[in-house]
Write a structure and sequence with these properties.
This protein has 942 residues and is of the alpha/beta class. It is 34% helix and 22% strand. Helix 8 packs parallel to helix 9, helix 12 packs parallel to helix 13 and helix 24 packs across helix 25. It is flat, with a radius of gyration of 33 Å. The N terminus is likely disordered.
Length: 942
Amino acid sequence: MQTSSDRHEYPAHWEADVVLRDGGTARIRPITVDDAERLVSFYEQVSDESKYYRFFAPYPRLSAKDVHRFTHHDFVDRVGLAATTGGEFIATVRYDRVGADGMPASAPSDEAEVAFLVQDAHQGRGVASALLEHIAAVARERGIRRFTAEVLPANVKMIKVFTDAGYTQKRSFEDGVVRLEFDIEPTDRSLAVQHAREQRAEARSVRRLLMPGSVAVVGTGRTPGGVGRSILDNIRDAGFTGSLHAVNKALPEDVKELDGVPAFRSVQDIDGPVDLAVVAVPAEQVPEVVTECGEHGVQGLVVVSAGYAESGPEGRERQRELVRHARTYGMRIIGPNAFGIINNSPDVRLNASLAPELPRPGRIGLFAQSGAIGIALLSRLQRRGGGVTGVTGVSTFVSSGNRADVSGNDVLQYWYDDPDTDVVLMYLESIGNPRKFTRLARRTAAAKPLVVVQGSGSAPQGHAVRATRLPHATVSALLRQAGVIRVDTITELVDAGLLLARQPLPTGPRVAILGNSESLGLLTYDACLSEGLRPLRPLDLTTEASAGDFHAALSRALADDSCDAVVVTAIPAIGEGSPGDAELAKALRSAAEQVPGKPVLVVHVELGGLAEALSAAAGTAPKPDARASGARRLRPSQQLPPPVQSQEPTASEAAPRLIPAYPAAERAVRALAEAVHYAQWRREAAEPGKVPEYEDIDEKGAARLIDGMLARGQGLTLGTEETHELLARYGVAVRKAVPAFTPDDAARAAADVGYPVALKATAPHLRHRADLGGVRLDLADEEQLRRAYAELTELFGKPEELRPVVQQMAPRGVDTVVRAVIDPAAGAVLSFGLAGAASQLLGDMAHRLVPVTDREAGSLVRSIRTAPLLFGWRGSTPVDTPALEELLLRVSRLVDDHPEVVAVTLEPVVVAPHGLTVLGASVRLAPPPARDDLGPRTLPVY
């Protein structure tokens, strides 16, 4: 604990867990006076060379004065942080605020000297880089804007830490020392560096779980049955390529194996390393197991034990302690209450799950939080012959249970550059960090398809999620903006996954339809129209069609430049010339392979063997270890290049053309429509647009206004004049509305602003409700104005209740609404829709994450269902959408530049054929919510 003379209390919010470069974890926390012994012990384990680099001279041991200096901090001008594992220091960093003369100083000086020391055994793990991120965040919080560091030229590792961080630097050399100076405000480059390091570290931490060389199952019973014994049997029966151990502390000392698997009473009794421990003991025994695993150097845990957050408050605290305990030893956890993990790689063949069989190997990565949903997904993928028989199966599977530590975000980091995964399918009951998930999803979707079923919005009891004020539909819309293929059911999840796993992306929405059933073809045609596709007239081959007829028709359709995809419909046919399942499948595959750039789907009715035949490779099912045979498969960059384009594989790259088959036209077309939309997103993502600069924006002036307003209180809704003044700094003009508490006030106001005018009641229950009669428009003179005033007061009550205002009429146009809000979980969101019933009753609003680019502003305007009203629907005059897009961009800039602006509403915004008019506006200010995406890398703490 710090003494009473220290200027600040211990800053507990600086404590954080981080993932290091090698996938292990460390705890970062402030150094206190209680750390004297830890500091001395740490220093004794540092090499003489590292000590020399730190102090520029031989420095074998710390003096009592040094220990006092390095452990006594005021947490303002002098701060020290330590990275710890197992409770012991592995690295330290400190800053000392200095003045222009280089001597110790206090605020307002905004410069500090920074220095690191990393234990030699932990150098190269990225500890110093993580510490730099955290000490920079601490310094910014304390008003420091610039770091200086002096480094010996031979200390190339530390120089690289500073130069690789992405900050703008100045370097000089004097008296044999390299002096570095750099601002510590986050830059685009520093954030890009931080995100790249985060991806590599988190991906490696998941890889250590999915690709272990040695596994111990803790809690294996002596007799078959039970969770632990079942998982042990599943790992063994799947042919795990590493070493497997059974652990049960109740085993008699003379029992040395269980069904041929070496057995031990404790993990610590195992000779050699253990990479992964699967924990299947009662919850009250888990802490002891975690300690044993940590002491033995286990890298990660899969905890299938229940009795945690899903069981109530006591279990939630038990879950928090489990995560804290494991991270102390640098271990990551899948679970608790997990179903398990699967890796189909022939180099691993790991089935550390409750699934009795290893699913077919393939190119699909599968994530489910729920064990029950995981079972259902694995079962459907195993059962569906129309796309998973053979190579289009599962690469890796993770069921995270309560996801107390490893979450969908972590697994997504792994799949992003996993060469064995081409398509990612995720069932998410909750999203713990929507802002981060959206960022990761956008990057992943640019490389490979990401299909997601999102829960209804209410998190299961075992899941801790960040509070969000956004409706479920808004979150879904934001996911689609990030390139996520959002579907509603696990059936649609599998349908889309099977298509995307082995068919190319369509280059457009034009669909050719052919088959041996006219009625099934028409059903497919109607389904295409319903999904917004552009179907061509179906080609009926009649029920007499042979396999050759199908081959010829499909070949012609694929060669036709007027179509982008083909749906083949097939029903059973009776007769000597009717093709069998295998014959028809061979004909379709042969035709499809001639034009590999267009997707082909089959809708089949009661053809039991066709689905299997379509997915079979040249008549023989591939062996489970087909990937080990040397056959080369297409990588995502070859199969789905951005922007989307057809690409003919070479003979050595060609893989069997597996055609997905669907039992209903609606399901096939829905999957195709999702592929079309995703392909369009990929093309647009290749040219994302830019955030335009406007010369008339006064960012500094707006900042001064906001600071002055917030000085009056923590959160406030601005008055009319303040709102207009702030918006004007960003080029948003709001038409003046003059209060009119008497008819004479109304007449004077109208004379001032000029006729014609509008008279509006602004009471909360009447605001923006022209349908209730609270608005009178186009009042041409004083007589009409006074008559309208009398009617309003007669209908709705006294003027003080109505709060009437007079406003000059705006040019006629379409009434719209623009909103921006800062959500604590998702970040800043910009929304647009038509004012009135369209947005309020039907929820027809479109949303984009801030900052919005010029391309996104254009798509935002066009993505609402009522958008045709802006573009000349039924002969009406189109309105000035470029002016509307500029307004959206200006509002986006306002909330992005000033996170204190937590809510903006412009309603109505009347968009005329030429220009627009903002008739009403409100702005709310508050201290901005924390932005963890701008801060240092940390693991979440729920």
